[in-house]
Here is the input.
Amino acid sequence: MNLKVKLAGVTLKNPVMTASGTFGSGEEYSEFVDLSKLGAVVTKGVAPTPWEGNPTPRVTEVYGGMLNAIGLQNPGIEVFCQRDIPFLKQFDTRIIVNVCGHTAEEYAAVVERLADEPVDLLEINISCPNVKEGGIAFGQDPKGIEAITREIKSHAKQPVIMKLSPNVTSIADCARAAEAGGADGISLINTLTGMKIDVKRRTFVLANKTGGMSGPAIHPIAVRMVYQAAHAVKIPVVGMGGIICAEDALEFILAGATAVSVGTANFINPYVTQEIVAGIEKYLEEEGIADVRSLIGAVE
Here is the structure.
C-alpha cells in the first residue's frame, strides 16, 4: 500500500502535514507526536526580523472553532535558522517554512536567507497586510498575487507554495494568478475574517476587533474552495481548513488536494496528525485501495 505523494517535486511519505501557526516549529508537539510519522512539518510564519504580534487578548473560542489575531508573532529568520531548523533535521520528515512579510522586499529577504538552508519547500503567507498598498493583503488581488509570486520565485531556490486567502471573490482567479506567477503549488484556505463581541462588556473580545476564523465550522467552505482551485490549475494543491479526522482529510484529497494540513485540531488533540495518518491507512485497507494517489481529485 502506497501513502507517498509528490508535492511540487518533493516526495512526502504520506499526505499529512501540519498547518502553519498551529504547531510552532514542532518542538512543543514532539513529545506527543513522532514527527517522523508525518509527511511534513510546516513551521510558524517567519519574517526577516522579530515581530511582536498584536496586543492581547488575541484568541477566543467561537461556535465550531476559534478566532485568532496573533499577528504572526515570531522571533525572526536568524533565530529560526539557528534554533528550529537543527531541531527539525533530527526527524525523517520534510520541512516546509512558512514565510511572511509586509513588503516584497521582506519576503525576498527571508527567501534568500533560506536558499542554502536544508529545508524542502517554502509556503508563502500572502494574507499579510501589504504596507505599501495601505494594508490590503497581497493575496486579495489576483494581479498582486501574480506579482508577489513572480518576485519570490526570482529569489527562491526551493519550490514555492503560495498560501491563498479565502477572503476573495473568486478563489479560482487567485489560484490561476499564483500559477501564472510561477508558483510550484498552492495551499488553501487560510482563515476567514471573523468577529466576536462581548455583550456584557459591549466591546470586542479581541483587541484587534477582527480575527481569523478556523476550525470545523469552516471545513465545507474550504472543501469547496479547494475543489474550485484544483480544477483551475495544473500545479498541486494543499488543502486545509477544519480537519479533525481522517475523513475530513480524505474529503480534501477527493476534491483535488495532493496533501493536507491539520491546524486548529492540534490545540484540542495534540495526537491528531498521527491519528489522521493511521486513519487514512485504515481507509485504504478497508476500501481495497493500493495507492492514495488514485484518490486525488477522484470526485469530479
User: Anything to note?
Assistant: The CA atoms of residues 284 and 290 lie 7 Å apart. The mean pLDDT is 95. DSSP finds eight helices and 18 strands in the chain.
